[in-house]
Please model this.
Amino acid sequence: MIEIQEELLNSLKEIFGDRMKLERDFLEKYSRDETAELEGSMPGIVLFPLTPEEISSVMKLANQYKVPVTPRGAGTGLSGGAIPPSGGIVLSLEKMNRIIEFDEENMMITVEPGVITNEIQKLADRHGLIYGGDPCSSDSSTIGGNVAENAGGNKVLKYGPTGYHVYALEVVLPTGEIVQFGGKRIKDVTGFDMIHLLIGSEGTLGIVTKITLRLLPKPKYSVALLAPFESVEKAIDAVPKLMVKSGTMPSSLEFMDRSSIQSTCKFLNIEFPYSDAGAHLIIEVEGNNKTAVSDDYERIGDICLEEGALEVFVADNRNTREKLWKVRKSIAEALSVYSPVHCMEDVSVPMARIPELIKGAEKIAEKHGLEMLSFGHAGDGNVHVTFVKGDRTEEYWKAHLEPALIELYELARDLGGCISGEHGIGLKRKKYLPIILDESQIRLIKGIKRIFDPNNILNPGKIVDL
Amino acid sequence: MIEIQEELLNSLKEIFGDRMKLERDFLEKYSRDETAELEGSMPGIVLFPLTPEEISSVMKLANQYKVPVTPRGAGTGLSGGAIPPSGGIVLSLEKMNRIIEFDEENMMITVEPGVITNEIQKLADRHGLIYGGDPCSSDSSTIGGNVAENAGGNKVLKYGPTGYHVYALEVVLPTGEIVQFGGKRIKDVTGFDMIHLLIGSEGTLGIVTKITLRLLPKPKYSVALLAPFESVEKAIDAVPKLMVKSGTMPSSLEFMDRSSIQSTCKFLNIEFPYSDAGAHLIIEVEGNNKTAVSDDYERIGDICLEEGALEVFVADNRNTREKLWKVRKSIAEALSVYSPVHCMEDVSVPMARIPELIKGAEKIAEKHGLEMLSFGHAGDGNVHVTFVKGDRTEEYWKAHLEPALIELYELARDLGGCISGEHGIGLKRKKYLPIILDESQIRLIKGIKRIFDPNNILNPGKIVDL
Model:
């Protein structure tokens, strides 16, 4: 672990006062994120900056004293991006949580990174607008974390990932400069696309201190369909057909298997129709015209029934829709209560290959004697295959998880997919990166990292080792 | 100019045979693009590769002999990206023009870079799908050029620029490796977002040899409105109001001033309603339900009338709509016939600032005694302010254009905009880049360029000088 020099501590104390924390219980909390199978690592100190200037000072000092800095949002990440593997400084952006400007004329909002994503959605909603990003963690994750990971979620199908909504970033570079990328303009080809390079770079290329997001007109009507199927296979086989045949773009097309639903219903203490069905699909459609939305969901419902759905439930009022989504969005939390030792993956494959992915993953689990459940964003090919320890011994779990993971990643690759669709590489998947990227690609990643961060001081050890 | 060594010529001749051209009339054609005010520069040779392997060999030889390589699509660029400023090799991708795969199941299409963009649109249309990119040059520009420039066009408002549709790229790196970035997966956060770094890098970071694009369900109904206004001011003032008040996202919101329309109608030899009006807006809405689309366009038509439109014409059949778009898409061509000496800009500002941009640009033109016309993508804030020489002397034009340009770029910046929304920096705007990017940003661009291209061999002298 890296020692934090007395002199450096004094300089930081002068800037941060009691927003600098050294107490063990603080450090403990900031040693981990929500990645179930990763061990934490204690930081030397935690800082709570309020301004980009403070962050700039930290980065300059960190470069001078060669101490690593790990930026952190809400700590809800699922690949270890916010864990400080060699100690040093954790820079928590929680207190930079102001909404700076709601610009209705330009349909843009500018926020600090510590704003909870849901706050943005609620504010937009009050003005008849929407923010198109919708990670399942939206009531706990911060928009800064969403940007760092290029978070996906439930509406990527129609609206794209977090990155598609970001038009400007204020960033403190690892070398301390405060830089403004982009602006409230829809189109910009002035130089390389640095904004999309920064988005999803997992806090390794810069610390985002302001984010400008585009908002969109809110569709007047949204309807969610719930379609239970006898088996995972039948539900998943219906997905590509729904996408191609429906002639419309659903805003969501989600999938939950029996284990996911049953443990979540138990966790939420609620009843769910057909909770013993093999799997359910949730399909949401939206629009400004009631008849148009009805036409869409009726067509989609018919396709579900043709493909073997046991029933199609229509949730056309806000209350029922929210209840349905509550189940979908609580799966990860239920999992962490009932199966705290598990490994949640987010492999992503071409939409038409999802049936092969799920069948292959089931075979892998069976081969290695592991329990498996699956849920996720079936419409965009991003499924949370999750291996669960259950009552297996610690030794068994440790010995069998890694080979199963490698086979899953290789399967995703062979189907034309990748090892992470929305959770990122971080610490968790770093050693598996060569399964999907070749030597030249890894050389370019390392080269770009060095250009931004010559001393490898900002979030080192994530994505790649230099 | 860089000399091409005899030995290098022999090696290339062996690979390319009669797909290597040295004849003066060939070289002449490949010395320029469609940027009106840029002088050409003769290449030493032009090569027509058919495979990524051939391109890889060229890059390896170019690095060995230190000869610059300038990739080129259809040569329709508007910032000099395809001009070889110091001679060397021009690599024309025209013959790599195959549609490799139409994957209906995944709603993706994979093409070579030399495919004309319109061919993709036509093929998608035959399958009830659309490609969301729609540059005005779509019947002459290639998809490879669109990717290199991150081309915008008429539908960015709703569908985003070219980059939002690209999910995989096969690229020959400047150092010769053939690399596959991305795949037919909607979500991918496996490492840095290299795809969006390559898109819009103007052929300075790699030569794209395959492109996979996502297609979308084709809306069943499209209606275009044409709204003439008394003055540019009245038309432009209506734009932000249309965007905020309509409650829907038009697929296009275009603007043409009187000079643009009159010269284009003369060029096409057609009549146009209210052709003496100060300016026209074209607004297109689309959807799957006839009533919903009617509701949308009626609301938009009402807002136009409230904002002072002289009339609102509805083009609700394909024929009339195509005629309308023909005018819009032919403005640049008409300009090059009637005003061959001109300077077409594509500054981009926040939507609500468009009125200030146009008024400011008019003042700049007046101050410098220049003729000005304007047209473009008003809904997304990207307007083609165009200075025209008219009957001014060559000396006058040369003396007054540059200060006017600088003032225009500064105005765009001060309104929160940038100097290029879709045409790129290339040769044309390179020296103006510091108006909008600071030292750190330019340092990062140069650093990234060096990581990809250590010998500065691929399209050198574009965007920045190393």
User: Anything to note?
Assistant: The CA atoms of residues 100 and 111 of chain B lie 5 Å apart. Chain B touches chain A through 92 residues (CB under 8 Å).
